[in-house]
Structure formats: C-alpha cells, structure tokens
C-alpha cells in the first residue's frame, strides 16, 4: 500500500517540476490534470474502500482531472495563447527555486511534531512541496492562465494534506473546497476573456492600474 | 446627591428636544437654554450642600462592566471645579440665544446645542467620578463632544483643522491616562479611586503613574509644550463655546492632577519640582506668545495657557510643601491654585463673551481692524475692561486674590531655612514677570480694540450687543468683583477643599494664613472708592476742556487712523526681547531711499511647538511612509503573493 502511495506522490512531485519548467500552456494544463487525477486515487489507497473515500475520489477525479482542465483548455482556445513568453524569473531559475523549495519541504516535514502514523511516508513533504511549487508558479508567471494552474497546484497540495485527515474531515468540507475552486476557475475564465477583450492581452501586470 | 444627578441628566439631555423641533424656529434653543440654566442651579445646589454640610456626597451603584462601578463622589475639591462650571455654562447658554440664534444658524445650531449640553454633563461627571472607568467614560464623552463644539463652523477649513489637531491631542492624552489607571489599579487593587493619602508611592511604578498623568492631564490642561491644540481650537469655536472650553474644560486636566496626587501618602520632591518648572514655562511663554498674536481669540487662548501655568505653579508649590512637610505651603499653594481655577473660569469666560460681542459686531477677529469701539459698544468695553483688570491680577478684582495667596506662600518660605526653598522662591519673579506681561498684553488689546480711531469700515457700523448677551457678562463680572472685594467669604470653603486634598495641611500651629484676606478686602474697597472718586472728579473737569486733537494724536494737527499705534508695533519691543523663543516672521517694512514708495509690513508668530516642531516632523514621517508604501504597494500581483508566502514561512518557522 505505502509503495503505491509513494510512487504516486513521487510522480506528483515530478509533475511539479514539469509544470515549473514548461513554457507551453497546454502541456501545463494537461500535467496539472494528470496530477489531479493521480491524487484522486490517494484516498482510496490510504483509507481503503468506503463510501466516503470513494465519493471523495470520484469527486476529485471528475473536477480536477476532467472538468476544470477542460474549461481551461477551452479558455486557451478562445484567447489563442500557447506559450508563457516572458516569465518574471527565467524557467531555469524557477526550476532551481522549485528544487530548493522541495528540499526545504522535506527538511521541514521532519521537524514537524506529527503523530507517528503521519510521519511515515512522503505525504506531508509532498503536500508542502506541491503547495510551494504552486505558490512559486503564482509569483513568477505573467499569464493569467498560468495563475489558474498555480491555484490548482496549491489546491492539490492541500488535497494531499487533507488525505491524512480524510476520516476526520467531513465530506462537506472537501466538497466546499472543490466548489470554491470551480467557481474561482469560472470567474477567472470570465475575467480572462474580458481582460483579453479590453486590453488585447492577458498579462496580469496590466491589472496594476487598479492599485490606488 | 439627587441635585447633582438631576443636574447631569438635565444638562446632558438639554439639546435633545431641539432635535425634534422646527429647524428655523426658536423653541428648541429656548428649551435647551432653560434646561442648562436649571442644571446649573441644581449643580450649584449640590455645591452649596457640600460646603454647608462639610461632608462629601457619595453614591455607589453597581455597573455591569468588569471593574467598573457607578461611584459618584462630590467632595469640596470637586465642588471647587463644579462651581465655575455651573456659572459659565448658564451664562454661555443665555448668551448663545442671541449670539448663535437658531434662525441665523439653521444648519448647525441644533447639533451645537446638543454637544454643548453633553460637554457640561460630562465635565460634571468627570469631577465627581469615583471610579477609573466611569472617569474615563466621562472624560471621553467630554473630549468627543468638545470636538463638535470646536468644529461647529465646519464649513471653515480653519475649524476643521483645529478640530483634527484637538482630536489627535486628546486621544493621545487618553492613551496615557488608560495606562496610568491600569498602573494605579495594580497599586491600589481596584478601579475605585482610593481615599486621599492612602496609596504608598513605590519607586518606579509611582513615578510612571505621575509621568503618565502629567502627560495625559497636561495635554488637556494645555501646559507648554503640550498646549498644541489649544490656540487654534479656542479661536475657531464660537465664543460661548470657547468660554466653556477655556474657562472650564481645560481645568479638568488640573483637576485630574490634583485628584491623582491626593491619592499618595508621600510625594517625591521632583513631582512638585517638575510641575513648578512646567508651570513657570507655561506662564511666561503663554503670555509672551499671547502678546505676539493679532487674532484676538487666539490671544485669549494663549492667556489660558498662561493661567494654567499659574495654577500649575500653585499646585507645584503645594506638592513641594507636602514633600517638605510644610503645611503652610500646602495650604497657600493649593488654595491659590483652586481659587485661580474658579477665577480664571470666571474672567476668561467674561473676556471670551465680550470678545464674542465685538467679533459679532465687526465680523473680524483681527486686532488691526479694530479701534475706537468704545464709542459704539460702551457696555461691552466696560465689561471687557473688568475682565482685563481681573486677568492681569490687579485689585479690586479676583485675579489678584489667587495670585496673592501664591505670593504669600512664596514669602512665607523665604524666612525659613527649608531645603528646596530656592525652587519656591523662584516662583515670585516668574509670577511678577507674568503679571506685568499680561498687563502689557491687555493694554494692547484694550487700546487697539476700544480706544483710538476706527481702522476699518466694519468698526464704524458696529452696534452694541443686545441685552441678552450683556446680562450674562454682567453676572460674571459681578462674581469677579465679589471674589475680589469679599475674599474672606471664600476662606472656609478653601480650607474645606484643601483638607479634602491633604488633611495634614489643616494641622497648622500658626494662625490661619487666610486671615490676610480680610485686610485685602478692606484694601480693595478703599481702592474702589478712590477710583470712583477720581473718575467722578475727572468727569466733572472734562466739561471745561476743549478737545481739538484726537487721542494719541502725537501732536499732529491732522492725524489719520493709519498713524496710530498698531497691534504689532505696540507689542514689538517686548516681542523683540523674547525673540529667542518666538521666532516671529516679518515681511517687508523696510523703507529704502530718500523718497520711499509704499511699503507693506506683516509679521506673524506661529506656534513654537505645533508649527515649528510637530507639523514638520509629522510631514516628514508621512513623506517617508508614502515612499515606503509606493514601494511595498506596487500593484504587482506577484509581489503580494510573495508577501503572503514570506508571512507564511515566517510564522511556520516562528511556531516550530
């Protein structure tokens, strides 16, 4: 059980690096969709077959693996953007920072005062690493679409953490998070189209005109 | 006690009926005025009861807030502050009927009267509160209502600015007071005020309490260098509000200091010493700054600073007397300070009210626009003269009596070989200098305003104030004269009040020092009689004199009004002497060449603390933060996310 678990999480971390290092938006979205779909397996693996875990897994698979990526791909088609042209920090530097963040996550997870059951495996460090990678993506990219991908990664990290608690965490909470995310993606998509129409660009730097 | 509570309730609610009345009708203002006068009468009833029985009135109700209790305690000390409050509040309310008639001020009159009543009620509560939290509640009510009195004419930028400075200053003061009361609670074990002389002063804590109290109460009282809010606020408020603020409200700072120091069983010498130093600074620089002003209400406001300085000198002397165990100093110092609180309340409101009638008649506060007003407003001139004589500390009015008590205290310590006596002896020259400068200042004001020839057209059309405005001033002048001519009637009351501050002061082996008041009374009557006779004699002789030239014509055949002394030129000699502390700005006035063309001279004296120190410092800080913000708040989403990440990491590491 732990082996499959660890393999999935390692793939998730590798996907983090892939997303951080890739300039092609379609590849990023597909990677994050794959990440979401893989993570949807986790509750079932960790907690066995039960109505709760199956529901959680199904919901996550549908939303993260299917619906949201589909919405994003559609948005990309409409605004006709393929590549993240000039990130704030170069892709190599982002990759390097991502590696540092992953190392830091592993070191940090060892220091956390957790109960023994949670200490085993790489659940906690993988969760932290994914969250940090998502944050990094949020900070370094210009295109609004990559921002959405960043939020998705952030949510994936939180989801991994939630798996630890999924017996304690009621279904409603997880469902609410997923719903939040969906709404956020919808709003982002609408804003994206409007920004594109107004400024003929979806660079988020243009949004700074709104500051006081 | 029912008297006092009725007074608080009546005053606090006095403005409420007016809110429901016609905006242009005069019903609301009459009701408000009647309620304030009734409240003042009830308050005076309570004062009389305290002085007649000799025991403090006490009332204790429980209050549903932790640590708080509705304890109201009116002792002789508080009664001395309540007395001028009642007189000034009633006089101002009646004066306001004509000065700020609702029909002329439909937009702000009702609001003004609501807060006028609230200030009166809040000051009553402040001086009677027996619990820290009740005290702070009343204090804050007073401060906030005072803000609305100052900004009554909020269409003027000047009033808005003055109100803002006032609000900032008074909230800074409250901050210090909050800290002080918490420390006091740790010392005494409860938020209820301890009885006089029960608290033992212990080292650092007591020093912190005193310093915080000195800052918080000093800010309200207006001791230099904490007087920053005072000049602009008194100048901007309507005249009867200035009278209430200057005559009564700033005295709550003095009350707070007196009440605070009464708690302690022994007083370190430096407490009295620092109060003496601050008092001397305020007295001298208050009057010098007043001399340099051209705005008549600003000038009066600086005189409030001066008089607060004199009161602080008296209180400082009493504190030094306590730490040296000299009951005579305590008696005379505190007696003088308390009497000056009453006196200043009376004559300063008289002055503000009479100046209000001048301002209303001429429409300007600029001294250099006045001149010759005594022909148009003879009664106002007479009333102002009475107030001016009183504030200059001249007999036969009341200002002389309180300063006399302080002088007596100074000279009583001269013969003895008391340690620290030098500090006391230095009060005498300070008081003398202050008195002389105040006299010079009021010669300037009276001369520029009421004597000479009109300097502008506004003066020529000025009319005498209506009877409803003159009557309250006459009552105030009557009280000034009463204290000046019959000071011995107040002797027992003073003894009572000093006893409630520090009972040890009454155990005096020597004969009571207040007996000299009887001699003063005789002297004052003789002086009054002499003045009366000489005036009558001059009036009789005047019929034989043929007047061909104007007053102060300097021998010119055809002088015009621009050849008169101006307010600036009259004060110039003294202002130049004190240039080191005033830094008066002058522009122009230098005639060049043999046939000089027209020249223009203006001089302006900004406030040394507010305009020279605090405003430049604040604008520097605000510039720095604007720069910092434009760097931090740059509008880039990535940076905000970075801030979030950094905060998160910081807290994760912090709590690990």
Describe this structure in words.
The complex is a heterodimer of chains A (212) and B (656). Chain A has 212 residues and is an all-alpha fold. Chain A has one domain (2-210). Chain A has eight helices and no strands. Chain A has helices at residues 2-21, 25-47, 51-79, 91-111, 116-119, 123-140, 144-164, 171-199. The model of chain A has no long low-confidence stretch (mean pLDDT 78). Chain B has helices spanning 2-13, 16-19, 27-53, 76-99, 109-128, 132-150, 157-188, 203-221, 230-236, 239-249, 251-263, 269-291, 296-323, 327-362, 373-376, 378-391, 398-415, 421-425, 427-450, 457-460, 467-485, 491-501, 516-542, 567-577, 579-582, 610-632, 637-654, and strands spanning 57-62, 69-74, 585-588, 601-604. In chain B, strands 1-2 form a two-stranded antiparallel sheet. Among the domains of chain B are: 267-506 and 514-542 and 565-587 and 601-606, no CATH class; 610-654. The model of chain B has no long low-confidence stretch (mean pLDDT 88). With 656 residues, chain B is mainly α. Chain B is built from 27 helices and four strands. Classes of the chains: A mainly alpha (212), B mainly alpha (656). Chain A: The chain crosses the membrane at residues 6-25, 32-50, 56-76, 88-108, 120-139, 151-169, 175-195. Chain A: InterPro entries: HyfE-like (IPR038730). Chain A: It is a multi-pass membrane protein. Chain A: This is Hydrogenase. Chain A: Keywords: Cell membrane, Membrane, Transmembrane, Transmembrane helix. Chain B: Residues 129-413 form the NADH:quinone oxidoreductase/Mrp antiporter transmembrane domain.
């Amino acid at each position: 059980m732990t082996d499959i678990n660890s393999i999935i999480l390692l793939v998730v971390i590798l996907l983090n690096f892939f997303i951080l290092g890739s300039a092609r938006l379609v590849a990023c979205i597909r990677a994050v969709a794959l990440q979401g779909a893989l993570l949807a397996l986790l509750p079932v693996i960790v907690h066995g077959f039960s109505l709760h875990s199956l529901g959680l897994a199904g919901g996550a698979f549908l939303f993260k693996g299917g619906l949201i990526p589909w919405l994003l791909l559609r948005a990309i088609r409409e605004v006709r953007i393929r590549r993240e042209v000039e990130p704030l920090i170069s892709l190599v530097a982002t990759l390097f920072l991502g590696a540092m963040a992953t190392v830091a996550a592993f070191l940090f997870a060892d220091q956390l005062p957790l109960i023994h059951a949670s200490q085993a495996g790489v659940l906690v460090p993988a969760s932290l690493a994914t969250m940090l990678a998502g944050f990094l993506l949020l900070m370094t990219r210009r295109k609004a679409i990559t921002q959405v991908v960043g939020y998705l990664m952030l949510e994936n990290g939180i989801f991994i953490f939630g798996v630890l608690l999924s017996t304690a965490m009621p279904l409603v909470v997880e469902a609410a998070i997923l719903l939040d995310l969906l709404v956020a993606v919808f709003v982002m998509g609408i804003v994206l189209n409007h920004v594109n129409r107004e400024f003929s660009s979806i660079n988020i730097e243009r949004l700074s005109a709104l500051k006081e | 006690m029912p008297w006092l509570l009725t007074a608080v309730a009546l005053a606090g609610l006095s403005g409420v009926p007016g809110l429901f009345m016609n905006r242009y009708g005069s019903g609301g203002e009459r009701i408000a005025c009647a309620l304030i006068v009734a409240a003042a009468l009830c308050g005076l009833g309570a004062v009389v009861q305290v002085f007649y029985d000799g025991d403090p009135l006490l009332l204790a109700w429980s209050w549903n807030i932790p640590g708080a209790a509705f304890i109201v305690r009116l002792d002789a000390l508080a009664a001395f502050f309540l007395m001028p409050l009642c007189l000034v509040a009633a006089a101002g309310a009646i004066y306001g009927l004509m000065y700020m008639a609702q029909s002329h001020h439909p937009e702000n009159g009702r609001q003004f009267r609501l807060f006028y009543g609230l200030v009166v009620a809040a000051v009553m509560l402040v001086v009677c509160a027996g619990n820290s939290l009740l005290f702070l509640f009343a204090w804050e009510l007073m401060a906030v209502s005072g803000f609305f009195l100052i900004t009554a004419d909020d269409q003027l930028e000047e009033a808005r600015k003055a109100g803002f400075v006032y609000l900032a200053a008074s909230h800074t003061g409250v901050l210090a007071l909050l800290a002080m009361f918490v420390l006091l609670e740790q010392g005494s074990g409860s938020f209820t005020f301890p009885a006089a002389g029960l608290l033992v002063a212990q080292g650092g804590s007591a020093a912190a309490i005193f310093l915080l109290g000195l800052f918080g109460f000093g800010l309200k009282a207006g001791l230099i260098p904490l007087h920053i809010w005072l000049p602009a606020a008194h100048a901007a408020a309507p005249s009867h509000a200035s009278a209430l603020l200057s005559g009564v409200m700033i005295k709550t700072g003095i009350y707070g200091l007196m009440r605070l120091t009464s708690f302690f069983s022994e007083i370190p010498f430096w407490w009295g010493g620092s109060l003496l130093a601050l008092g001397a600074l305020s007295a001298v620089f208050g009057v010098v700054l007043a001399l340099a002003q051209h705005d008549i209400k600003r000038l009066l406001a600086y005189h409030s600073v001066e008089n607060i300085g004199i009161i602080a000198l008296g209180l400082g002397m009493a504190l030094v007397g306590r730490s040296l165990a000299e009951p005579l100093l305590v008696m005379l110092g505190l007696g003088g300070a308390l009497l000056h609180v009453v006196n200043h309340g009376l004559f300063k409101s008289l002055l503000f009210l009479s100046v209000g009638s001048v301002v209303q008649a001429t429409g300007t506060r600029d001294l250099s626009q006045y001149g010759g007003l005594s022909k148009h407003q003879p009664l106002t001139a007479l009333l102002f003269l009475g107030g001016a004589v009183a504030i200059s500390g001249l007999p036969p009015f009341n200002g002389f009596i309180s300063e006399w008590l302080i002088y007596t205290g100074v000279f009583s310590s001269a013969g003895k070989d008391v340690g620290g006596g030098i500090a006391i002896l230095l009060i005498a020259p300070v008081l003398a200098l202050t008195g002389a400068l105040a006299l010079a200042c009021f010669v300037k004001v009276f001369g520029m305003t009421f004597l000479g020839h009109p300097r502008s057209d506004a003066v020529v059309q000025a009319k005498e104030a209506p009877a409803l405005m003159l009557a309250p001033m006459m009552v105030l002048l009557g009280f000034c004269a009463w204290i000046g001519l019959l000071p011995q009637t107040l002797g027992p009351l003073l003894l009572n009040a000093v006893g409630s501050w520090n009972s040890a002061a009454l155990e005096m082996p020597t004969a009571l020092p207040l007996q000299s008041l009887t001699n003063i009374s005789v002297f004052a009557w003789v002086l009054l009689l002499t003045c009366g006779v000489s005036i009558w004699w001059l009036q009789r002789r005047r019929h034989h004199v043929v007047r061909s030239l104007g007053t102060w014509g300097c021998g010119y055949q055809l002088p015009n009004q621009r050849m008169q002394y101006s307010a600036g030129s009259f004060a110039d000699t003294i202002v130049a002497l004190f240039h080191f502390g005033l830094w008066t700005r002058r522009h122009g006035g230098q005639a060049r060449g043999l046939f000089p063309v027209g020249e223009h001279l203006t001089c302006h004296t900004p406030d040394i603390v507010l305009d020279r120190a605090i405003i430049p410092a604040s604008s520097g800080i605000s510039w720095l933060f604007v720069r910092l913000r434009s760097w931090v708040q740059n509008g880039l989403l990535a940076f905000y996310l970075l801030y979030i990440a950094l905060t998160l990491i910081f807290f994760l590491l912090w709590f690990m």
